[in-house]
Amino acid sequence: MRKSIILTALVLAVVAAIMATVSAYYFALIPGLLALALGFYGMKLSKARIQPKKTAQLSILLGALAICLSVYNLVFAPKQELTISNTTEKIEEPTPDDIDDEDFSDEELDELENEVTPLIKPTDSVPPPANIIKK
Prior knowledge:
With 135 residues, the chain is mostly helical. The protein is 56% helix and 0% strand.
């Protein structure tokens, strides 16, 4: 009975520790609390029979660690929204037809054109890549 209780507490503690590190951290409280309770009960049984207590202590430690991790994630992690349905909304991007040239005056367009023109030099030639050998 003592071994089965301690083994169950250890398995629950490991499951809770794994659940506390993945996105289902809010479910890790249940196995963590069960691991703590069973670990303390296994520790009590081990003390009464004067048997080793190290496995019970390990399950208590892992259960407490899992509870701490899940509480930390509940408090400090960014909230995740649960999606109830798989519906998606399409966001329409503006097409060039939607943009009016009338929004800018001719003077503004000329200024923008003069700012961009020095950046583009048609006489600049791009050298060929170094790995191409001319014959």
